Amino acid sequence: MKFMLMMNAPSGKGGEYNVTSWPPEDLQAHIRFMHDLKRDLDKAGELAGAEGLAPPGQAKIVSLGKNGVPAVTDGPFAESKEFLAGFWIVDVDSPQRAYEIAARASSAPGPGGKPLVIPIEVRQVMQAPPA
After folding, report:
1. What is the pLDDT along the chain (131 residues), one digit of tens a residue?
2. Angle at 93 between CA 87 and CA 98, to 5 degrees
3. Total domain count for the chain?
4. Alpha-carbon distance 119 to 24, whole Å?
5. How deeply is 106 buried, as exposed, middle or buried, from its count of CB atoms within 10 A (0-12, 13-18, 19+)?
6. Which residue, 13, 27, 112, 127, has most beta carbons within 10 Å?
7. What is residue 15's predicted lDDT score, i.e. its pLDDT?
8. Which of 1, 3, 7, 2 is nearest to 121 (CA)?
9. C-alpha 17: how far from its chain's center?
10. Does this model's pTM top 0.90?
11. 127 exposed, middle or buried (CB, 10 Å; 0-12, 13-18, 19+)?
């Protein structure tokens, strides 16, 4: 069973998820945690893919425009309270295992080493029926 685990980070300022403002040692600890998680999932044969994403300010919304030309507008609306910071696609034996991995990802360290407890949305990746 494949699941997509989506890390939805809070936007804004202050103590929220704004890694560019963290002390360098805290950011390094966070990145090390993410590398360790990836390594462990790879070793277990459970990782199908994982990526961090650029901040919402760099996102674009694209739809089909006139004459087949892409219509591109600025990304998520400014009033968004959360944004997709990154994701994992895992191939596991049960939903429970996906939840365990999501809980581990949620515990990533933030400023001062304190776990961020970021919500991780878990959704099963659907497969198309046979053609």
Report:
1. 999 999 988 765 444 567 878 899 999 999 999 999 999 999 999 999 999 888 777 888 889 999 999 999 887 665 666 788 899 999 999 999 999 999 999 999 999 999 989 889 999 999 888 88
2. 30
3. 1
4. 24
5. middle
6. 27
7. 43
8. 7
9. 12
10. no
11. exposed
Query: Looking at beta carbons, which pairs linking 31-36 to residues 24 or more positions away fall under 8 Å?
Result: 33/108, 33/109, 34/108
Which tokens sit at 63?
Answer: 């739809």
Domain containing 60 equals 2-124
The SS3 of residue 119 is: coil
What DSSP assignment string belongs to 91-109?
E-S-HHHHHHHHHHHHT-B
The structure tokens 């999501």 sit at 102
The verdict on residue 131 lying in a domain is no
In-domain check, residue 110: yes
